[in-house]
Amino acid sequence: MDHREVKIYGPATVSNVGPGFDLLGFALESPGDEMIIRRNDSGKLVLIDESGCNLPLDPAKNVAAVAAASLLEEVASGEGFELRFTRKINPGSGVGSSAASCVAAVVGINELLGNPLNTMALIPHALAGERIASGATHADNIAPAMLGGITLIRGYDPLDIKHIPYPKDLWCAVVHPEYEVKTVESRKLIPEQVPLKTALTQCGNLAGLVAGLATGDYSLISRSVSDAFAEPYRTGQLPGFDELKQHAIEAGSIGTGLSGSGPSVFSLCRGGDMAASVGRCMQEHFTGRGIRNDLYISRISEAGCKII
């Protein structure tokens, strides 16, 4: 391939998904990142931010550049590339902002190089960038952003990723209150060890959620979207979270929880109309407290990162 420019879309993602801490995530149809990647003659990575998100332009500190550099090192390419961020998910929003950038960068550069690596081989390089943002290696945003759908990270050593079937009328409402929660700081709130009883509860919920998704059992899904590991320690960052969750369930949510490390909150719903109704209910929770917020209503996206 000899063309010099490609435009890439990297979707937002919901990670953890209740009991799936670091293991379960899914892609949204919107919002997402848009990035234009061009070859240049400098032999370096050059970053241009047109997104309005005040992104770091130092290649050592920008997650997309770190992911790109990891890929270029593996394929032993000395070429230079310009990464132009034209649309960006707000950093720290809890819907996979860093993952969308990392995935878009490696997919775009791989395309311009003639696709020397297959899609699965790109994931470790995207993870190299994600590690900068979160301080840990977790693929529950990277995998669905790359592959689409709902993904389960069965294991990390070696990386073992599987798609989970899900009912096609499953929609999601996500509300992003306009303040930032840094993943690396949010992870510090979670204890290193948990009691056996807590671990068993979490394992049961994760198994139940996967089984419910695969069989289309909405009742089982609803009973299983509960996180005993991270959510109890993170929800102090959100005012009135328990009340919000209860109101969302009363409005028709199948299951509600933090998206990633927050501050965004997701609700799984049956059908787009119900997702819109539940989303408005969650919006009212924040609006009533004087907190500006954005609402996203989306199917679970079959597609991951793509060239547009």
Describe the structure.
By secondary structure, the protein is α+β, with helices and mostly antiparallel strands. It has helices at residues 63-74, 97-112, 119-134, 142-147, 183-186, 196-215, 218-224, 231-234, 241-251, 272-287; strands spanning 5-15, 24-40, 45-49, 80-87, 150-156, 159-164, 170-177, 255-258, 265-270, 293-299, 306-307. Strands 1, 2, 3, 4, 5, 6 and 11 form a seven-stranded mixed beta sheet that branches. Strand 5 and strand 6 form a beta hairpin. The longest helix has 20 residues, at 196-215. The protein is globular, with a radius of gyration of 19 Å.
Secondary structure layout:
Elements lengths: L4 E11 L8 E17 L4 E5 L13 H12 L5 E8 L9 H16 L6 H16 L7 H6 L2 E7 L2 E6 L5 E8 L5 H4 L9 H20 L2 H7 L6 H4 L6 H11 L3 E4 L6 E6 L1 H16 L5 E7 L6 E2 L1
Parallel strand pairs: 3-4
Antiparallel strand pairs: 1-2, 1-11, 2-4, 2-5, 5-6, 7-9, 7-10, 8-9
Helix pairs in contact: 1-2, 1-3, 2-3, 6-7, 9-10
